[in-house]
Amino acid sequence: MDVDRGTARDIEGFSAPGRVAEPGEGISMEELALAARNHGMPLEALRYELTPAGLHYVLVHYDIPAAEAADWRLTVGGRVRTPLRLDVVALRSYPSVTHRVTMECAGNGRARLTPRPVSQPWLVEAVGTAEWTGVPLRVLLEEAGVEPDAVEAVLTGADHGVERGVEQDYRRSLPLPVATGDDPEVLVAYAMNGAPLPPQHGHPVRLVVPGWYGMAHVKWLRDISLTSTPFTGFQQSVAYRYKQSADDPGEPVTHIAPRALMIPPGFPDFMTRARAVRPGRIGLEGRAWSGHAPVVRVEVSTDDGRTWHDAALAAPEGHPWAWRHWHTAWTATPGNHVLVARATDGDGRTQPVEQPWNRGGFGNNLVQRVPVLCVPEAG
Known about the structure:
Layout: H1 5-14, H2 29-37, E1 74-78, E2 84-86, H3 88-92, E3 97-104, E4 127-136, H4 137-144, E5 152-163, E6 166-175, H5 176-179, E7 187-192, E8 195-196, E9 206-208, E10 221-227, H6 234-237, E11 241-242, E12 251-252, E13 259-262, E14 267-268, E15 275-277, E16 280-289, E17 295-301, E18 309-310, E19 312-313, E20 324-332, E21 335-345, E22 368-374
Parallel strand pairs: 1-10, 15-22
Antiparallel strand pairs: 1-2, 3-4, 4-7, 5-6, 5-10, 7-8, 7-9, 11-12, 13-16, 14-15, 16-20, 17-18, 17-21, 19-20, 21-22
Organism: Streptomyces pratisoli
Protein name: Sulfite oxidase
């Protein structure tokens, strides 16, 4: 959208630039408000192969639009021969496909960085896996007819707001080979786990881009436009870049880095979530995933990374873009312990034990550490 110069100056003053927290600076009220609006998946929900919709992580950049399926229209235009205008009934008339996809926020783990980027303060719970049903994006683009000079598909959502001084609709783009490809197959989805999309997950229509971080999965999708030049909007060229400084143009955030998460064993302290277990043999389990290649190895340490052993990995079961279950066992002895899990994917990428830093806190796949106190049974 266009705004006049006066309005633009007002908006710039209204919306603060990005920054990094000062040494010792705590979580602000604004970050706390973001954390209240956006929620992660409780780690005990890793026991579910498919994350229930209400437990799947949620990030909403602006407001959840008041979107009614009966009034919704999705347009496909730009560098196409036959523009399309589809309502939800028309979209559902196409042959549907269902893909099981693990989705993770690009900022997952940001709050653990030092210095801390000031933004949504994720720990490690910004993830979930669902079965998404819809129409392959390539099918819609084939019907519209892609012009030879098209290079990108620009996807626009209905959510509107201000970010870093820029008033905008949420808008991202995909390279044309990704938008028209079948591995992964990008979906224009209208169902999650066999039910209509919930409002917070993009009702009535959203994009699902297997293997990519969540910023690419545009919710409340209302327009798809092919362009003959690369898209340079805020969410593409300013946000979601790996940067070391404010003036660094950075590199784009795209595919999900490998990660393993453990279901915290035992029982928690209410305030700290610290874990306690009893002595003896304890099963350890969790999920592991990567957007680059399937996970081929998960290692577990029960001594804070000094020694490692391989966990058993479940078969992938034909879902290359979904997490895999892993499990192992540990004999707990009285005292304090730190449990660690790390994943390696088929391209040889392994989670780091020391996290590289970037200004946005993106792609942070530092290994999960779970402190555990083993206490004897009460006498």
